[in-house]
Amino acid sequence: MSDHQHGSELKGKNLFLAIILNIAITIAQLIGGILSGSLALLSDALHNFSDVLSLIISYTANRLAQRERTERQTFGYRRAEIIATFFNASTLIAIGLYIIFEAFSRLSSPEPVDTSLVIWLGLLGILVNGGSIFLLRNDAQESMNIKAAYLHLLGDVLTSVAVVIGGLLMLFWQIYWVDPVISILIAVYLMYASYGLVKDSTAILMQFAPKSLDLEEIVQTIIAHKQIQNAHHIHLWNLDDNRIHLEAHLDFTENLSLKESNAILEILEEELHEKYDIDHTVFQCEYERKDDKERVEKQ
């Protein structure tokens, strides 16, 4: 078994455990929110429910991404995790908007809240979601899909902390309007944390060039080889959040044999991988061809 396969299986197991933990806390907070009358607790339960869905989607995408390529799916299912990232982050923004709407409605008529239940369930949320974060903390650094699920869980920890603080304020000072205010703060954070993932996953799905790479710098690296005078019709994109692909037409200065051009391309591919972490290249070698020499085709 390869290290990549072993790592993917470990991610899957960690995700599955996080799903079980979040189902338990969602049920507890939903019942507690109804019994206590706390909008903040119900908001946290709704967020946790979205976490359960996002973790299930992330788990499914993680399984799909491990499938082998076929003649019809020549790239495999690598984009499954990016689609999951986009969906999970987008739903988090939608949930944030709903929480804000409900919170403003509650602000106009604050209601008493069973603070002891709010505080205890908030503490339970911190414990359970903290455990889930511990499971996924390393995987989130390597996978955008896992990072989306991780952000859901991190948001839950912060919202549970806010719920506990709000419960204490209501318990000792009877400031019940703090409950919807905390809900609004929770929602704003969720939307802010999700925006970057929506933007990044959209860029990958649209096959934009990675923002960390400078296309002109890559071209200069290519034409630094004396046998290559021009690189044009370039396409640079992320297959997923780890793999970068590059394709281009290369104008050679000499009418080299296929064997000679292959030797140059092997050196170039290794250089591009080391300098820019480009995993896959497709080059069309040309000599005195009369075509458009624009770096990027306009149409």
How would you sum up this structure in a few lines?
With 299 residues, this protein is mainly α.
Give a structural overview:
By secondary structure, this protein is mainly α. It has 2 domains: 3-205, Alpha-lytic protease prodomain-like; 215-286, 2-Layer Sandwich (Alpha-Beta Plaits), CATH 3.30.70. It is built from 8 helices and 3 strands; from the N terminus they run H-H-H-H-H-H-H-E-E-H-E. It has a 3-stranded mixed sheet with strand order 1-2-3, covered by helices on one side. Strand 1 (228-238) and strand 2 form a beta hairpin. Helix 2 runs parallel beside helix 6 (178-205). The longest helix has 34 residues, at 3-36. It is elongated. Mean pLDDT is 81; it is low at 1-10.
Question: What are the SSEs and their pairings?
Answer:
Blueprint: H1 3-36, H2 39-65, H3 80-107, H4 115-136, H5 144-173, H6 178-205, H7 215-223, E1 228-238, E2 244-252, H8 258-276, E3 280-286
Parallel strand pairs: 2-3
Antiparallel strand pairs: 1-2
